[in-house]
Amino acid sequence: MKPTLLILAAGMGSRYGGLKQADSIGPNGEAIIEYSVFDAIRAGFGKVVFVIRKSIEADFKEKFAGKFDGKIKIEYAFQEIDTPIEGISKFPERKKPWGTGHAMLVARDLIHEPFLVINADDFYGYDSFRQMAQFLTKKCNSKHLGMVGYLLKNTLSENGSVSRGVCETDSNHLLTSVTERTKIIRESNGQIYYYDEHHGKHALADDTIVSMNYWGFSPKIFEVARKMFVQFIAEQGHNPSAEFYIPRIANEMIQTGKADLTVMTSRDQWYGITYQEDKQVVQQAFWALTTIGVYPNQLTQGEKVESNR
User: Fold this and answer.
1) Cα separation of 102 and 112, whole Å?
2) pTM for this predicted structure
3) Domain 4-291 has CATH 3.90.550.10
4) Is the pLDDT of residue 224 over 60?
5) Quick one: what percent of the chain has pLDDT higher than 70?
6) Which whole-number Å values give the CA distances from 230 to 106, 161, 182, 235, in the listed order?
7) Hey, how many other C-beta atoms are within 10 angstroms of the C-beta on 30?
8) Which end of the chain is more exposed for a tag (fewer CB within 10 A), N or C?
Protein backbone atom coordinates (compact mmCIF):
# COMPACT_ATOMS: atom_id res chain seq x y z
CA MET A 1 0.00 0.00 0.00
CA LYS A 2 1.41 3.37 -1.00
CA PRO A 3 1.78 5.97 1.76
CA THR A 4 -0.27 9.15 1.93
CA LEU A 5 0.93 12.76 2.09
CA LEU A 6 -1.02 14.94 4.53
CA ILE A 7 -0.49 18.66 3.88
CA LEU A 8 -1.52 21.14 6.57
CA ALA A 9 -2.79 24.17 4.67
CA ALA A 10 -5.44 25.69 6.94
CA GLY A 11 -3.27 28.37 8.56
CA MET A 12 -2.81 31.98 7.55
CA GLY A 13 0.62 33.56 7.62
CA SER A 14 0.13 36.31 10.19
CA ARG A 15 3.66 37.71 9.88
CA TYR A 16 3.68 37.20 6.11
CA GLY A 17 0.32 38.89 5.66
CA GLY A 18 -1.83 36.62 3.50
CA LEU A 19 -2.66 33.18 2.21
CA LYS A 20 0.86 32.12 1.35
CA GLN A 21 -0.14 28.50 0.62
CA ALA A 22 -1.31 29.57 -2.84
CA ASP A 23 1.23 32.32 -3.52
CA SER A 24 3.12 32.14 -6.83
CA ILE A 25 6.75 31.24 -6.17
CA GLY A 26 8.04 29.12 -9.07
CA PRO A 27 9.08 30.36 -12.53
CA ASN A 28 5.58 29.73 -13.94
CA GLY A 29 3.58 30.76 -10.91
CA GLU A 30 3.84 27.48 -9.00
CA ALA A 31 3.17 27.52 -5.26
CA ILE A 32 5.55 25.78 -2.85
CA ILE A 33 2.84 23.20 -2.25
CA GLU A 34 3.09 22.04 -5.88
CA TYR A 35 6.75 21.13 -5.45
CA SER A 36 5.88 19.01 -2.42
CA VAL A 37 3.21 17.13 -4.36
CA PHE A 38 5.57 16.70 -7.34
CA ASP A 39 8.30 15.28 -5.08
CA ALA A 40 5.80 13.01 -3.31
CA ILE A 41 4.70 11.54 -6.65
CA ARG A 42 8.30 10.90 -7.63
CA ALA A 43 8.95 9.21 -4.29
CA GLY A 44 5.98 6.85 -4.64
CA PHE A 45 3.18 8.34 -2.54
CA GLY A 46 -0.32 7.32 -3.60
CA LYS A 47 -2.57 10.05 -2.23
CA VAL A 48 -2.52 13.65 -1.01
CA VAL A 49 -4.89 14.96 1.65
CA PHE A 50 -5.08 18.74 2.05
CA VAL A 51 -6.30 20.17 5.35
CA ILE A 52 -7.87 23.57 4.62
CA ARG A 53 -10.61 25.85 5.96
CA LYS A 54 -14.00 26.23 4.32
CA SER A 55 -13.37 29.96 3.94
CA ILE A 56 -10.41 29.37 1.63
CA GLU A 57 -11.81 26.34 -0.21
CA ALA A 58 -12.84 28.18 -3.39
CA ASP A 59 -9.56 30.09 -3.77
CA PHE A 60 -7.50 27.05 -2.88
CA LYS A 61 -9.20 24.78 -5.39
CA GLU A 62 -9.08 27.47 -8.08
CA LYS A 63 -5.29 27.45 -7.68
CA PHE A 64 -4.72 23.70 -7.47
CA ALA A 65 -7.72 21.77 -8.81
CA GLY A 66 -6.84 19.67 -11.85
CA LYS A 67 -3.09 20.23 -11.72
CA PHE A 68 -2.33 16.67 -10.66
CA ASP A 69 -5.23 14.85 -12.29
CA GLY A 70 -4.20 11.36 -13.32
CA LYS A 71 -0.99 11.57 -11.30
CA ILE A 72 -2.09 11.19 -7.69
CA LYS A 73 -5.39 11.03 -5.77
CA ILE A 74 -6.37 14.30 -4.04
CA GLU A 75 -8.76 14.61 -1.08
CA TYR A 76 -9.71 17.40 1.33
CA ALA A 77 -10.35 17.67 5.06
CA PHE A 78 -11.53 20.83 6.81
CA GLN A 79 -10.20 22.33 10.01
CA GLU A 80 -12.39 24.80 11.85
CA ILE A 81 -12.32 25.89 15.49
CA ASP A 82 -15.24 23.54 16.18
CA THR A 83 -14.50 20.65 13.81
CA PRO A 84 -16.01 17.67 15.68
CA ILE A 85 -13.66 15.35 17.55
CA GLU A 86 -15.02 12.29 19.35
CA GLY A 87 -14.98 12.87 23.11
CA ILE A 88 -15.50 16.66 22.93
CA SER A 89 -19.14 17.71 23.20
CA LYS A 90 -18.51 21.46 23.00
CA PHE A 91 -15.42 23.52 22.18
CA PRO A 92 -14.63 26.66 24.17
CA GLU A 93 -15.05 29.82 22.11
CA ARG A 94 -11.87 31.30 20.67
CA LYS A 95 -10.49 32.82 17.47
CA LYS A 96 -7.10 31.08 17.22
CA PRO A 97 -6.85 27.60 15.60
CA TRP A 98 -6.11 24.63 17.85
CA GLY A 99 -2.77 23.82 16.23
CA THR A 100 -1.13 21.21 14.01
CA GLY A 101 -2.18 18.26 16.16
CA HIS A 102 -5.83 19.17 15.70
CA ALA A 103 -5.25 19.77 11.97
CA MET A 104 -3.88 16.24 11.67
CA LEU A 105 -6.84 14.79 13.57
CA VAL A 106 -9.47 16.22 11.24
CA ALA A 107 -8.09 14.04 8.41
CA ARG A 108 -8.49 10.82 10.39
CA ASP A 109 -11.34 9.37 8.33
CA LEU A 110 -9.40 9.82 5.07
CA ILE A 111 -6.16 8.07 6.05
CA HIS A 112 -5.84 4.33 6.66
CA GLU A 113 -2.21 3.78 5.65
CA PRO A 114 1.19 5.06 6.88
CA PHE A 115 1.41 8.77 6.17
CA LEU A 116 3.68 11.80 6.08
CA VAL A 117 2.47 15.09 7.51
CA ILE A 118 4.05 18.39 6.39
CA ASN A 119 3.42 22.13 6.30
CA ALA A 120 1.93 23.56 3.11
CA ASP A 121 4.24 26.56 2.98
CA ASP A 122 7.59 24.79 3.48
CA PHE A 123 9.86 23.43 0.75
CA TYR A 124 11.63 20.29 1.93
CA GLY A 125 13.46 18.93 -1.13
CA TYR A 126 13.12 15.56 -2.87
CA ASP A 127 15.59 13.67 -0.67
CA SER A 128 13.32 13.95 2.37
CA PHE A 129 10.38 12.46 0.43
CA ARG A 130 12.60 9.62 -0.83
CA GLN A 131 13.80 8.76 2.67
CA MET A 132 10.33 9.00 4.18
CA ALA A 133 8.66 6.92 1.46
CA GLN A 134 11.14 4.11 2.13
CA PHE A 135 10.57 4.38 5.87
CA LEU A 136 6.78 4.39 5.63
CA THR A 137 6.64 1.39 3.29
CA LYS A 138 9.25 -0.76 5.03
CA LYS A 139 9.65 0.22 8.69
CA CYS A 140 6.76 2.30 10.01
CA ASN A 141 4.26 0.76 12.43
CA SER A 142 2.32 1.75 15.54
CA LYS A 143 5.45 1.47 17.69
CA HIS A 144 8.00 2.82 15.25
CA LEU A 145 7.55 6.34 13.91
CA GLY A 146 9.82 8.63 11.91
CA MET A 147 10.75 12.17 11.08
CA VAL A 148 13.16 13.99 8.79
CA GLY A 149 15.21 16.68 10.48
CA TYR A 150 17.19 19.50 8.91
CA LEU A 151 20.49 21.19 9.74
CA LEU A 152 19.66 24.42 11.54
CA LYS A 153 21.96 26.43 9.25
CA ASN A 154 19.79 25.40 6.28
CA THR A 155 16.55 26.67 7.82
CA LEU A 156 17.24 30.28 8.84
CA SER A 157 15.76 33.49 7.44
CA GLU A 158 17.87 36.49 6.52
CA ASN A 159 14.98 38.75 7.50
CA GLY A 160 14.39 37.98 11.15
CA SER A 161 14.30 35.35 13.85
CA VAL A 162 12.62 31.96 13.52
CA SER A 163 11.24 29.27 15.82
CA ARG A 164 12.50 25.70 15.49
CA GLY A 165 12.07 22.40 17.31
CA VAL A 166 15.57 21.41 18.47
CA CYS A 167 15.96 17.63 18.38
CA GLU A 168 17.97 15.40 20.72
CA THR A 169 18.78 11.85 19.57
CA ASP A 170 20.55 8.81 20.95
CA SER A 171 23.33 6.77 19.34
CA ASN A 172 20.76 4.83 17.28
CA HIS A 173 19.30 8.02 15.75
CA LEU A 174 16.15 7.67 17.84
CA LEU A 175 14.51 10.87 19.00
CA THR A 176 14.72 11.51 22.74
CA SER A 177 13.09 14.98 22.78
CA VAL A 178 12.00 17.98 20.73
CA THR A 179 12.33 21.36 22.43
CA GLU A 180 10.73 24.40 20.84
CA ARG A 181 13.21 27.29 20.69
CA THR A 182 12.00 30.73 19.66
CA LYS A 183 13.84 33.82 18.46
CA ILE A 184 16.64 31.90 16.69
CA ILE A 185 18.89 34.13 14.61
CA ARG A 186 22.41 34.25 13.17
CA GLU A 187 24.12 37.35 14.51
CA SER A 188 26.86 39.52 13.01
CA ASN A 189 29.65 37.39 14.53
CA GLY A 190 28.42 34.40 12.51
CA GLN A 191 27.13 32.47 15.53
CA ILE A 192 23.53 31.23 15.77
CA TYR A 193 21.74 32.03 19.04
CA TYR A 194 18.30 31.57 20.54
CA TYR A 195 16.78 33.80 23.22
CA ASP A 196 14.76 32.33 26.06
CA GLU A 197 11.72 33.83 27.80
CA HIS A 198 14.01 35.66 30.23
CA HIS A 199 15.99 37.21 27.33
CA GLY A 200 18.89 34.86 28.03
CA LYS A 201 21.13 34.22 25.02
CA HIS A 202 22.23 30.69 24.11
CA ALA A 203 24.45 29.47 21.27
CA LEU A 204 23.35 26.76 18.83
CA ALA A 205 25.65 24.86 16.46
CA ASP A 206 25.12 25.18 12.71
CA ASP A 207 24.56 21.43 12.38
CA THR A 208 21.96 21.20 15.15
CA ILE A 209 19.14 18.95 13.91
CA VAL A 210 15.78 20.72 13.95
CA SER A 211 12.23 19.62 13.25
CA MET A 212 10.45 21.35 10.38
CA ASN A 213 7.17 19.51 10.97
CA TYR A 214 8.03 16.53 8.75
CA TRP A 215 6.59 13.46 10.48
CA GLY A 216 5.99 9.86 9.42
CA PHE A 217 3.24 8.04 11.30
CA SER A 218 1.15 4.88 11.36
CA PRO A 219 -2.60 5.59 11.23
CA LYS A 220 -2.74 4.10 14.76
CA ILE A 221 -1.46 7.47 15.99
CA PHE A 222 -4.85 9.08 15.37
CA GLU A 223 -6.42 7.41 18.41
CA VAL A 224 -3.46 8.38 20.62
CA ALA A 225 -3.71 11.97 19.36
CA ARG A 226 -7.48 12.04 19.88
CA LYS A 227 -7.21 11.02 23.53
CA MET A 228 -4.46 13.57 24.11
CA PHE A 229 -6.49 16.31 22.42
CA VAL A 230 -9.56 15.57 24.54
CA GLN A 231 -7.37 15.92 27.65
CA PHE A 232 -5.77 19.07 26.24
CA ILE A 233 -9.19 20.71 25.75
CA ALA A 234 -10.23 19.76 29.27
CA GLU A 235 -7.07 21.24 30.79
CA GLN A 236 -6.17 24.14 28.49
CA GLY A 237 -9.18 24.74 26.25
CA HIS A 238 -10.01 28.04 27.91
CA ASN A 239 -6.49 29.42 27.36
CA PRO A 240 -6.87 31.50 24.16
CA SER A 241 -3.20 31.07 23.21
CA ALA A 242 -2.79 27.34 23.92
CA GLU A 243 -2.21 25.12 20.87
CA PHE A 244 -2.01 21.36 20.43
CA TYR A 245 1.11 20.68 18.39
CA ILE A 246 2.27 17.46 16.71
CA PRO A 247 5.62 17.37 18.62
CA ARG A 248 3.56 17.13 21.82
CA ILE A 249 2.12 13.85 20.53
CA ALA A 250 5.54 12.50 19.49
CA ASN A 251 7.13 13.48 22.80
CA GLU A 252 4.33 11.81 24.76
CA MET A 253 4.69 8.53 22.89
CA ILE A 254 8.46 8.52 23.32
CA GLN A 255 8.46 9.48 27.01
CA THR A 256 5.82 6.87 27.90
CA GLY A 257 7.54 4.12 25.91
CA LYS A 258 4.62 3.65 23.53
CA ALA A 259 6.84 4.13 20.48
CA ASP A 260 10.28 5.10 19.32
CA LEU A 261 10.97 7.54 16.51
CA THR A 262 13.78 7.37 13.97
CA VAL A 263 15.32 10.69 12.95
CA MET A 264 16.47 10.79 9.34
CA THR A 265 18.49 13.81 8.26
CA SER A 266 18.20 15.85 5.10
CA ARG A 267 21.09 18.06 4.09
CA ASP A 268 18.96 19.88 1.52
CA GLN A 269 18.30 23.57 1.88
CA TRP A 270 14.89 24.16 3.39
CA TYR A 271 12.92 27.11 2.02
CA GLY A 272 9.97 28.85 3.57
CA ILE A 273 8.39 32.28 3.71
CA THR A 274 8.28 33.44 7.29
CA TYR A 275 8.47 37.10 6.32
CA GLN A 276 7.26 38.89 3.19
CA GLU A 277 10.90 39.77 2.48
CA ASP A 278 11.74 36.07 2.19
CA LYS A 279 9.66 35.73 -0.97
CA GLN A 280 12.25 37.07 -3.40
CA VAL A 281 14.96 34.79 -1.96
CA VAL A 282 12.73 31.74 -2.39
CA GLN A 283 11.69 32.74 -5.91
CA GLN A 284 15.34 33.03 -6.91
CA ALA A 285 16.04 29.61 -5.40
CA PHE A 286 13.27 27.95 -7.42
CA TRP A 287 14.44 29.68 -10.57
CA ALA A 288 17.93 28.25 -9.95
CA LEU A 289 16.58 24.74 -9.21
CA THR A 290 14.61 24.85 -12.45
CA THR A 291 17.55 26.19 -14.45
CA ILE A 292 19.85 23.34 -13.37
CA GLY A 293 17.16 20.74 -14.07
CA VAL A 294 16.19 19.68 -10.56
CA TYR A 295 12.58 20.52 -11.52
CA PRO A 296 10.99 20.76 -15.00
CA ASN A 297 10.07 24.15 -16.35
CA GLN A 298 6.38 23.18 -16.49
CA LEU A 299 5.98 21.47 -13.13
CA THR A 300 2.41 20.18 -13.48
CA GLN A 301 2.03 20.12 -17.24
CA GLY A 302 2.81 17.60 -19.93
CA GLU A 303 3.42 13.91 -19.43
CA LYS A 304 2.37 12.02 -16.34
CA VAL A 305 4.94 12.26 -13.57
CA GLU A 306 6.51 8.83 -13.13
CA SER A 307 7.01 7.34 -9.68
CA ASN A 308 10.47 6.13 -8.65
CA ARG A 309 8.87 3.09 -7.03
Assistant:
1) 17
2) 0.92
3) yes
4) yes
5) 94
6) 13, 33, 27, 9
7) 21
8) N
